[in-house]
Amino acid sequence: MKEKKQNILIIGAGLCGSLLALRLGQRGYNVTVYEKRPDLRKVDISAGRSINLAFSDRGNKGMKLVGLEEKVKKLCIPMNGRMIHDKEGNTFMSNYSGRDYEYINSISREDLNALLLTEAEKHENVKIHFNKGCKHVDFENTTAEFKDYVDNSEFKEDADVIIATDGAGSALRKSYYLGKKFLFSFSQDYLTHGYKELSILPAENGGYKTFKNALHIWPRGDFMIIALPNLDGSFTVTLFLSYDEGEYNFNNLTTPEIVTEFFQKEFPDALEIMPNLVDDFFENPTAPLGTIKCSPWHYKGNTLLMGDSAHAIVPFYGQGMNASFEDVVEFDAVLDEGLDNWEAIFKAYEKRRKKDTDAIADLAIDNFHEMKDHVGQAIFQEKRKIEMALEKEFPEDYSSKYSLVTFNEDIGYREAMLRGRAQDKAILNMLSDNVISAEDDIKDVLEKVKEETEAILEDDRIAGLY
Amino acid sequence: MKEKKQNILIIGAGLCGSLLALRLGQRGYNVTVYEKRPDLRKVDISAGRSINLAFSDRGNKGMKLVGLEEKVKKLCIPMNGRMIHDKEGNTFMSNYSGRDYEYINSISREDLNALLLTEAEKHENVKIHFNKGCKHVDFENTTAEFKDYVDNSEFKEDADVIIATDGAGSALRKSYYLGKKFLFSFSQDYLTHGYKELSILPAENGGYKTFKNALHIWPRGDFMIIALPNLDGSFTVTLFLSYDEGEYNFNNLTTPEIVTEFFQKEFPDALEIMPNLVDDFFENPTAPLGTIKCSPWHYKGNTLLMGDSAHAIVPFYGQGMNASFEDVVEFDAVLDEGLDNWEAIFKAYEKRRKKDTDAIADLAIDNFHEMKDHVGQAIFQEKRKIEMALEKEFPEDYSSKYSLVTFNEDIGYREAMLRGRAQDKAILNMLSDNVISAEDDIKDVLEKVKEETEAILEDDRIAGLY
């Protein structure tokens, strides 16, 4: 390993950057972090909105790594399943797992980020500077140029290593792309849908206006809204909708009347508890949904991309933050290997990690279609019913794709994807061919699903598909 | 349709741009073409190298469209199959099809481009200007800025419509990407391999030093060389090799001795007829192999990407030029639909075409692995043997993936990919499970392959995989 006195510069003090700073601080490195936004512990930068995220087992590995599991638990609201709302306002709960102890959590981005910053700053060897945005990284000389947004000055920083955790719009990634100094594979893929955040405010008594411990979904085939609970009794609601296709879309929802009409027609039960809908709708921006992949993540032993800067994904698997925290865990494991230079460390990290972040990017797109559409279809509901029964009866022997991705944090995303997709294909085809049904003996179903899944994986392997 | 007097500006007079100019000239538009390079009919821009391409049935659709089929045929050298060279210098021929009348051709890029330019210029309403490179396209105002490389002047051109056929490094695509005026999905993916062009010169009597009517391949697992014949008796040889992996790679082939050692060890029979190897190797550049995809291809009704500028692919299916010519054929078919504005025309064209260019990009990557590796493996050779027999015995009922892509020009690349991959999977798995063999009754094999292929496609459909 490199000497502990090495100076590491981290660009971006969001969730990934602050966890990385904390962990590298614990390991004894001299860590300097520059963040373009103000310190969120001192300034309210959320414009009154309470933005939350799904936090689950892979993210929790990061919290365990730095000893924060218990503190983070206090910020969590468990969500045991999806509560589906149909057009008539009927609801039904679809658990995330047949195992009672498996659930995901809603957590405030701000509260969690604040905790990580505070813990990182407890280390003398970690310094965090705010209001300083990175403009450019000279990856050949391991220097970065910043602008100070308070006094408008510009300055350059030198380091032994620069790690960019500056999100989907990463300055380092842009420098890689525009620099044309090496072959840089890169993709940005936008969905035809965008999203807009809305809210369900707390009840007058401070309680929740709808069931607290669920991720609520109103699936409508080509669009949907979802809602996640906050500690203050509110829910953050997100509308996912096409920019320009279908009867209602972001381009034609231009007046209070048409927005209200759209919700009245499609989400009447949500509208009832969203009297603030029109204000939210026209105050909050519409944002795009994009996937970013790239390679290589590093330039020699000088610079490295981590978190969203290396692999931004769409939010439909609730794994964005969890994947970034897992990055830090994986990077930490590579540091433990005792490689003797940063280039070898960065190379080993990318080799170990990229296949998995590619997989979660693709899985997140899968789930976009599943959430807005499949959850409302009979054959997918029948599949879900069978999988819940399998997980309940055989908790040691069966995990659905969702469980493999979300709760089986000891296997990588890629393995979860391959096995999970094969299982889905096996069950859907056996249902379609009347080989299994939800009424069959469940032990018999388990055996058939396992056998068919193995056969699918083996056929793909022989055909050289992976 | 738009009025015929519309002014169309085409950026780039390569193979796609010159065919497009010719066709739009035939349709009566006022066409102006700007090309950054000198006129290849007047200046030798090949630096003494004779670069050839694979020309096949999809490309020929474009030639038929403009009435040039017979003229182009005179430039073609038929290649009936792959001639495989093993490490001991043994050769065996693997035909591209079991149908004798199906073959691909080697054609000179320069000769074909020259023909298309000359034919386009026969139209009064087509003007082609050389030495004028596009620097930037203002897609909101439908203007383009050029630099004249002869007098270094810069100028701006206005048009009703701008179509960019300026290749993988497209100025219009760069303007889309950097403009950030709309959500532009984009990817550039590089293989870890690069390529370098070499040559086998004609024999002293002007003849060919190895078999003329084949695409020669020396497959070696992780790397390969290929050779295509030229009309002058020479072959253009291409080495495909990793930049930095394996015992020999582009980064360590730095001296005449090691280059010769590499060829002596891996390609002894090729080396014998390549006395000019070392000169070629150190004179010619090493170039990367990249795939480019993007969307949207058009901005409103103002500008459109076509050919490599919209979808650059790796060369392993010999379909790059053919795909670009097919673009022109597809665009021409949309023009026939009588839509009443350019935005509708561009939208309809992309909707119809993009799924197919995405597919050929993926197929070309498939074939990279097939050519350098699979062609040398027993199970793939057995598959090929069976497919040749199927095509010979049942020419109306069976086409291999290669035939579907190359010779079935009436179906799109995407359909060819889905059916071809399913067939490959069916045959490889039935071979592996001893359900079929090359010795079985061929009629029986056909029925099993067809049935299994349909089952695979149906299983994928039920699982929602496409």
Describe this structure in words.
- Chains A, B: Residues 428-455 form a coiled coil.
- With 466 residues, the first copy, chain A, is α/β, with parallel strands linked by helices.
- Chain A has three domains: 7-76 and 108-188 and 290-368, 3-Layer(bba) Sandwich (FAD/NAD(P)-binding domain); 190-288; 377-462, no CATH class.
- In chain A, 40% of the residues lie in helices and 23% in strands.
- In chain A, the strands form four sheets. Chain A has a seven-stranded mixed β-sheet.
- Chain A is globular, with a radius of gyration of 23 Å.
- The two termini of chain A are 34 Å apart.
Features:
homodimer, 466 residues, alpha/beta, FAD/NAD(P)-binding domain, 3 domains, 7-stranded mixed β-sheet, 6-stranded mixed β-sheet, 40% helix, globular, oxidoreductase (chains A, B), Kynurenine 3-monooxygenase (chains A, B), FAD-bd (chains A, B), FAD/NAD-bd_sf (chains A, B), coiled coil (chains A, B)
